Amino acid sequence: QVHLRESGGGPVQTGGSLRLSCVASGYTYIKRTMAWFRQLPGKEREGVAYVTEVGMVGYASSVQGRFTASRDKAANTLDLQMNSLNVEDTAIYYCAAHDKAVCQLREDLFSDWGQGTQVTVAS
Description:
Blueprint: E1 3-7, E2 10-13, E3 18-25, E4 33-39, E5 45-52, E6 57-59, E7 67-72, E8 77-82, E9 91-98, E10 112-113, E11 117-122
Parallel strand pairs: 2-11
Antiparallel strand pairs: 1-3, 3-8, 4-5, 4-9, 5-6, 7-8, 9-10, 9-11
């Protein structure tokens, strides 16, 4: 059985940092693109960052310069270092993966999803 599992969420103060991790297990091959999405309260899910198999990285403008996504292909993991967090970053964060190289943060392009991890930023 293949699945993605996120960890690292929790409460944090404004200006603080958190590091999320996603482990892909059960796959017999490396997913070419892995990404982070998030769903803010009362809003639709939105893209945060993607990392392709060859290391191409893209970010949403709202997190550019504050968040850093990275992959460990050997371990089949995807991390998201989040700095300078603010209340607008409060959301459920999801890990996603796709078999193809995807350089867009479009939810419909990703086939596999984790259950999500909650990040709550307090003012």
